Amino acid sequence: MPKYKMVLEYDGANYRGWQAQKNAKTVQETVINAGQKFLGVPVDIQGAGRTDAGVHALGQAAHLECARAVAPDALRAGLNDNLPETIHVLSVENAAPRFHARHHAVSRSYLYLIAKRRTVFGRRYAWWVPERLDCDAMRQTLGIFEGFHDFVSFADKRMEKGSSTRVKVEGLWLREFDEIIAIRVLGSHFLWKMVRRIIGVTVEAGRGGFTAGDVEQMLLGYSEAPKKHTAPPHGLFLEKVLYEGDELPGIKPPIAVI
Fold first, then answer.
1. Which 3-state string (H, E, C) describes 165-194?
2. Is 156 a catalytic residue?
3. pLDDT, tens digit (0-9, with 9 covering 90-100), for 128-186
4. Active-site choice (52, 73, 136, 178)
5. What pTM was estimated for this model as a whole?
């Protein structure tokens, strides 16, 4: 059957995440419905990564498989014509029969936005932290997470039953803009709520609530502290899914947030 690779952006505020589930409005199900309405045949759509309820995407990758062949540009236009304004297909291209959006991805980057001031227009897309944050302390904290660690303290144990909690984080970066602090986290995969808990602990270190030693202990044994400091979902974006040969773009918050 024909297969297509897609890249989508979406505002996750009113969705229960990417992955289809019973009795919940999800991004995956919404895109499947749009595809079936346009194509008139059943479609299968699989994403490169799960996003939690309320989390956004600047570049979610997915593949679409169906029994009907159509030009990629026509498929992109047809999907967008049947999608709500909160979801937009950025690109569509033909894919090899064995291509799988999740299995063939080599890395995923997430971007988290922290507002330096109370913001009306960015309130849906950035976490306003009223305290002044020490960005040097936050960079030091982010450095602790880099590498291969057991992130059991940073995972939602209800969702990771029987799964390994050892993850390699390939890189973390913090960049300051006039009114926004942007943090990028790059890795091959992430556990449920792991990125949000890394961010929450990093912000608490920026407030002066955690030392580097405190954070190191969270990676050496189980701690409830990260759970208590889980950052809210509305500041998190799945920034880009990388495949062999892809490069990361420069860190740039969405224009609507700045």
1. CEEEEEEEEEEECCCEEEEEEEECCCCCCH
2. no
3. 999 999 999 999 999 999 999 999 999 887 655 567 899 999 999 999 998 999 999 99
4. 52
5. 0.94
